[in-house]
Design a protein that fits this description.
Blueprint (H helix, E strand, L loop, with lengths): L16 H6 L1 E7 L3 H12 L4 E5 L33 H6 L9 E3 L4 E4 L5 E4 L3 H11 L4 H20 L13 H7 L4 H8 L3 H6 L5 H8 L15 H8 L8 E3 L4 H13 L3 E4 L3 E5 L3 E4 L4 E9 L3 H8 L5 H8 L7 E8 L18 E4 L3 H12 L7 E5 L14 E8 L10 H17 L5 H4 E7 L1 H8 L30 E3 L13 H14 L1
Helix pairs in contact: 2-11, 2-18, 4-5
């Protein structure tokens, strides 16, 4: 078997469509993103006949690898940059390390430069972080560490507390969560609606620390740091049980490709370049070419809006009502760059350690909020950015001596008040680099080539409605039992993507949960 990585996910058709249509399958999975592939792997391990149908020529969905630049030795994951929330059970049960899954934990995990020329490292070792905070804000050390401890308590209670790991299976409801945190008012406030700005204000006073901390409360979310619920966004991203966030050797797409190889070894059949036109409950799916693929069970890795469209008139009333009210518009522009050299940051011009961290570009909480408010009015204002440099850990993703940089920038609207993404894409890309240039003045000169992806571009490239990488907001009102369940309420139709509990990021557990629901229902 050729490893999926060797073709960068371009596995093609395993057999003519007519042969695939001639079989009757236990389950068909619509979409070959990492969660769809995970569901396929678990079902195949359970002895079920499984067919994965991916519309695009390349597997992985938002977690894939591409060669978008003239020099094809640059490997780019267009939408997913770091791994941190992939479930340990998925790694172990699918034996992903045997298929080539390797990671480099980012340490330091974050570095933030400030406009006054100072900066802050945050390390895996909390004592090193405390020492770094003491250098610039000695009066805030205790508050900063209490802030970190708050999110650690939330992680421990949710992932290994009295209820076990709440990510597995059905979500706890509001009452169950209240009971779980009845003795921790601060944590309950984070879970049920506090803003990240308020939580930070309750712990530290130095404005630089506030700038460094607030971005994790808004990342990927069309909400500003003063908006309710943003503290939970940070908590969601703090729930790692694999030692923190880091880079995947060979690029993020390798997560999907290793899962695909595990699924295929267990007997799953995977087809790329096979777009589905319709989901027919109880029968299977119809392809764009008209062929009917027979299966009693259909699992959709597509987002709920796309799934509803594929169901056509078969979309149930309750499911459709939830789809209609689902917030799923992204505020993110992604910038993927080939670099001739690493940029020089004014705050630390000679320290290569900074490039091993997630680099935070943030001036203040209020400026980030203003940028969010501007985007709501249709104005692109990429104020907050997070930068990822893979080559200091893994030189395999770029030609010798060259580098990659991926940027997660906010805020931009899906629909611009003036112009269109086609007419203003490069201008907005320049705006992202301008935001970085406040701290690294030579960034423009470092860029050989770049790829700019606004929300409509992500929607078109990956099939994510609104360009939203989490398949919908992960604010409290769309989390827990308010998120979609794997079971749609439509007979034989399931969801397995990021719109389901426990939410978005490269987690794999959404696909595992869907597979377990299917297997339970087949008993």
């Amino acid at each position: 078997m050729t490893a999926t990585y060797d073709s960068l996910g371009g596995v093609g058709l395993p057999a003519p469509i007519s042969e695939l249509a001639a079989r009757s399958w236990d389950a068909v999975i619509v979409g070959g993103g990492h969660n769809g592939l995970t569901a396929a792997a678990y079902l195949a391990m359970a002895g079920k006949s499984v067919l994965v149908l991916e519309a695009r020529e390349r597997l992985g969905g938002a977690c894939t690898l591409e060669t978008p630049f003239a020099d094809e030795r640059f490997l780019v994951s267009p939408c997913a940059y770091l791994v941190g929330l992939l479930h340990p059970r998925v790694i172990e049960e699918l034996d992903l390390e045997r298929f080539g899954y390797r990671t480099f934990t980012a340490d330091p995990n974050q570095w933030t430069p400030f406009e006054d020329g100072t900066s802050l490292f945050q390390w895996q070792d909390s004592s090193r972080t405390a020492a770094a905070v003491k250098e610039i804000a000695p009066n805030d050390v205790d508050g900063f560490m209490a802030y970190e401890a708050l999110f650690e308590r939330i992680r421990d209670r949710l992932r290994s507390g009295p209820r076990g790991d709440v990510w597995l299976g059905d979500s706890p409801d509001h009452a169950a969560l209240e009971e779980l945190f009845v003795d921790d008012v601060q944590a309950a406030e984070v879970i049920f609606g506090a803003s990240i700005a308020d939580v930070i204000d309750n712990h530290v006073k130095d404005e630089r620390l506030k700038a460094a901390l607030h971005g994790q409360g808004v990342i990927g979310t069309f909400a500003g740091p003063h908006d309710p619920g943003t503290a939970w966004v940070h908590a969601h991203h703090s729930l790692s049980m694999i030692g923190g966030w880091g880079f995947v050797e060979g690029g993020m797409g390798r997560v999907s490709f290793c899962i695909a190889d595990s699924a295929r070894e267990s007997g799953a059949v995977i087809a790329a370049g096979a777009p589905v036109a319709e989901i027919i409950p109880g029968q299977g799916v119809r392809l764009v070419g008209g062929e009917l693929i027979n299966a009693k069970t259909v699992i959709s890795n597509a987002d709920p809006v796309q799934t509803s469209s594929l169901l056509m008139s078969a979309s149930g009333t309750a499911f459709q009502s939830k789809v209609d009210s689902w917030a799923i518009t992204s505020p993110v522009v992604k910038l993927n760059c080939a670099l001739s050299q690493l940029p020089t940051f004014t705050a630390s011009p000679n320290d290569p350690t900074i490039f091993k961290a997630q680099v935070e570009i943030a001036r203040s909480i209020d400026l980030t909020q203003s940028a969010c408010d501007a985007a709501r009015a249709g104005i692109a204002q990429p104020e907050w950015c997070e930068l990822y440099f893979q080559t200091p850990y893994d030189s395999s993703v770029a030609p010798p001596g060259l580098h990659t940089m991926s940027v997660f920038a906010q805020y931009v609207p899906y629909e611009l008040a003036q112009g269109t993404w086609d007419t203003r894409r490069e201008e907005i890309g320049d705006g992202v680099l301008d935001a970085i240039a406040r701290f690294a003045p030579n960034i423009h000169e470092c860029v050989i080539e770049r790829q700019v992806l606004g929300p409509p571009d992500v929607e078109e490239k990956v099939g994510l409605t609104g360009g939203h990488i989490f398949q919908g907001e992960i604010l409290p009102e769309q989390m827990w039992d308010q998120r979609f369940s794997a079971r749609t309420g439509i007979d034989g139709v399931y969801l397995c993507g990021a719109a389901t509990h426990p939410g978005g990021s490269v987690m794999g557990v959404n696909g595992r949960n869907a597979a377990m629901a299917v297997l339970a229902d087949l008993k």
